[in-house]
């Protein structure tokens, strides 16, 4: 994680636990709480690669509806916790969201870019508070205090079955994991955005008052314009059919 995402180094390097002086070697075990130092014969610097801030978006475009339906049919459960939707047969999906994995790889809304998860986890996933590393056995990593007790869980096989052509893309998971590292592991980390907007509240005014409010305001405006274009495209498509 350090060498592949966070650090730019041109020589071999090691990590040493400051209190004990012990050299830390690669391991699947969680690192002990404490201070660690990096040593190298060359230069070490933290990448300035920007992270891709996101908003949870809700759209009624036909492409989004198809995406949501496809993710529900493939997964049928929260693929993070394993909690099944026992109301699926009744057509109720309350509490379950089809989350987009990536925003920067493709503009095509594909089932391979989605995961079904509990609605509270969707919010955390969109803000990069946890992620899944496809290069570490699809392990879930929580980058903040683990409110949901998901750290160390393994992504459910139902969404990543290689025999299913619609399985979630490793590239999508890798992209999201990279963004999570960039958002959480440099200095104090990036801001966590407000997501609880009571009915009738002034969403845009709230966005402007947040850290990085200008950027988030622009993101929300861009999202609304994109949704409008998608809905207009859907209307034109239906007119052509009839």
Q: Can you describe this structure?
A:
It is a single chain. By secondary structure, the chain is an alpha+beta fold. The protein folds into 3 domains: 1-45, no CATH class; 62-185, no CATH class; 203-238. 32% of the residues lie in helices and 15% in strands. A 3-stranded antiparallel β-sheet has the order 3-2-4, with no helix packed on it. A hairpin with a 5-residue loop joins strand 8 (130-133) and strand 9. Helix 5 runs antiparallel to helix 6. The chain starts with a helix and ends with a helix. Mean pLDDT is 81; it is low at 235-242. Residues 92-133 form the HNH nuclease domain. This is HNH nuclease domain-containing protein. InterPro entries: HNH_nuc. It comes from Aspergillus rambellii.
Spell out the key features of this protein.
242 residues, alpha+beta, 3 domains, two-stranded antiparallel ribbon
